[in-house]
Amino acid sequence: MSPAARLRLARGLVWIGCLTPLALLVGRTLNGGLGANPIEYLERALGDWSLRLLLLGLALSPLRSLSGWTWPLKLRRTIGLWAYAYVCLHFAVYIVFDLNILEPARAVAQLAEDLVKRLYITAGFAAWLLLLPLAVTSTDGWQRRLKRNWKTLHRLIYPAAVLGVLHYLWLVKKDASDPLLYAAILAILLLWRWPWPKVRGAILRARPAPPATPRDQTLR
Amino acid sequence: MLIRVSPQHPIKPSEITAEAVHADRRQFLARMGLAGAGLALAGCSEAKPPVPPAAGAGPAATSALPALEVGKTSALAGGEKPSSYEDITHYNNYYEFGTDKSDPARNAATLRPRPWTVLIDGECDAPGQLDLDALIKPHALEERIYRLRCVEAWSMVIPWVGVPLADLLKRFKPNSKAKFVQFFSLADAEQMPMIRRGVLPYPYREGLRIDEAMHPLAFMVVGLYGKVLPNQNGAPIRLMAPWKYGFKAAKSIVRIRFTETQPETTWNAIGAAEYGFYGNVNPEVDHPRWSQASERRLGELFRKPTLMFNGYPEVAPLYAGMDLRRYY
Known about the structure:
The complex is a heterodimer. By secondary structure, chain A is mainly alpha-helical. Chain A has twelve helices and no strands. Chain A has one domain (3-209). Chain A is globular, with a radius of gyration of 20 Å. By secondary structure, chain B is of the alpha+beta class. Chain B has one domain (70-319): Oxidoreductase, molybdopterin-binding domain (Sulfite Oxidase, Chain A, domain 2), CATH 3.90.420. Chain B contains eight helices and 13 strands. In chain B, a hairpin with a 5-residue loop joins strand 2 (117-122) and strand 3. The radius of gyration of chain B is 19 Å and the shape is globular.
């Protein structure tokens, strides 16, 4: 299989993988399979998938360094945009049902109160806000226009992911094992990016030497 | 503040228990030869499941739990529609069986609600250790349809079966030093393997001031929807103080203790800033992390305003002169 075909296949799998949870949720919604508190179920499921896809997106560059493959980096945009789609759906359920979109004036007042008084909502909203410019500038056109600034701008993914995990951690009543798992994975992914040339170099050297192809040269 | 007229609604038969369920219950009792037995807390394992009713299956019709003989029914939820049996029994906070709402229904089968003894001790003249039957049998069972408001801002309407707490407590002759009542839930790692995770300090403890416990609304629950209480709902005996958040309603009670000083309560002990001793439903006092002004009634899409004391204004005199922002 040619590299281009492999990439197309990988992209197709990413689309299927990202669509499946949404399709299952829609199916459950239509079948009344969301349990006693369907709104809470939707919010939690959409929030969970937002975080999972964000973390998956952040795992691609370490995967590239560890494996030597280049294709993971080419999936980042698709996965990142899907993550944002789940974030938006999660936020939309909150706006429509928790704030009650049928009474917009009161909903706005309630949103303002939540943003000021409830730290987990502040964190979640901030994460959504930080991700917005990243989604907008995800196109090739914006990437060209922003040149080197594009990379700087897209580092906002790090604080956004941290805020997303804090959002989950702060809303849990007791048993924080689920958010802590996300936090641990995020910590590993962020620490990997820490400029620790020695440690990282040692890990990279420890992996089996990849075949010396020209493609591999670009990875160092 | 919301002032509501005491909900002395005329009870429409349609609001109480579906006729089919009622008929089925009678039929079942007759078949079991239990009619008039008062409390039919037959061991679950020995009880035969009731024959499914011919038509109009009631909400609890699928439950294999034994039916209870209920003397009197009071609709005390302002005529609001009871939540479905399915929702009531599959959306539970019972951390001894897992922290997810769906965990207790899955995991609580390991609880053995019979035989069951309850120790009553502390500041009382007639303490004792009683079998559940001996504890409940002297009283006529009542059905009471109460709202249940969780501190997490969701709510249900539940037709509980039980006895007035005051009637039960008075039998043990609390003395003049009995200013509070403490309730202890079962904490048996064999029946509740999850307690080893130590999410909460066990046993789960709750408490009421003695005048709260003696209030006519305070209820000791042994069933719901006319049947024996399912394990995940706190079988075989649990508390219900409908003007308080759900965490006050200790489940699977094994000990009732009269105390002179305010007893330690579980959620208050681990997070006093978030959970007070009183735990009265109060839309004006927010939980630090979420608003208590509104709630999601299970089965409804949009939130509705939360009522002061969960819509039971008759308890307000208990707190006359108290700063409910301080004593939340």
